[in-house]
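WARN retry 2 of 3 for item q-0093 after timeout on previous attempt; input resubmitted unchanged.
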Amino acid sequence: MEKALQDWCKQLDDWGFPPWMDLLLAIAKVLAQQWADEEEDPTLAGLGKRWVGNFLKCHPELTAKYGTQLDRQQAYASYLPTLQDYFRKLKQLVCKYKFKTENIFNIDEKGFIISRSSRAKVVCRAGHQPPRVIQDGTQEMLTVVECCCTAQYMLPSFVIFKGTAQYMGWYSETSNPDTMFACSPNRCTDDKLGLEWLYHFDHCIKNRKGGSDTQLLILDSNRSHLTLKFIQYSIDNNIQLLCFPACATYLLQSLDVGLLAPLQKYYGKAVDDYIRNTRTGILKGIFWRFYSAACQQAYTKKNIASTFRTTGICPFNPDAITRLITGDTNPVTVSQPPP
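OK item q-0093 returned
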């Protein structure tokens, strides 16, 4: 059991999110209980308060350290050794599992104010104060979880409305049966919805060519991605995880870098045209009409390929990021992983 826990801790560290002490203790208790049930000896299930400390003493290649706080991470988000470590881990995974382009994915989530149009220039009289463009006034938000692949396609969206129950009218205009809708009291991703999205991801990729291969999912350190069930499901279903360094997603996350901004622009333009023509607001029931149209404009193969190239993921090129940080036009080239 301890050997399995040791390997598990090392794997999570390689993925970029080493386990908290309480998470290690939680999974150890689960394994101990399973062991006790198999041996029919309930005394084997007991783990004392000092178990984690004793475990680390028995395995000196592991240690416990305080995680760096967020404000310091913000200061060092562009710290070159941190970025190099991320690319080192990415290269190790690509070399080990020989990922094809259809097996590398990036996930991110985006919040939308349903009735908020995009900011745009308008023609008005010179010398006057900037005009105020009329908005619907509704500030209700929702969250959309998106996932893109280096094979230049997007997985079906996962939409989270604010509420305690779903209504058929919210997604009556959706034509793709794999698009998922959910709800939460604050429209944010929680542990349960994070796991539901992972089921959604696994279902979608298994319906595609190469779905039986090992997948690489690159994601941020959102708490809903770091739960025991999320990690265990990934391990059980051949999904390798790699976490971005804290606060560096603006540099490394493909969706952040080149896809979500144009998506917001196209969605805002569609909403603005609708409000101007109808003088009415946007409701949940017609949100998807404008969002899906914006996706078709923003999520082109050219844009997806460009954003993975810009972030150095595909083709593998850490120099794309180090040039931005150092300003050096001839940085030291990092070797490519084998095809």
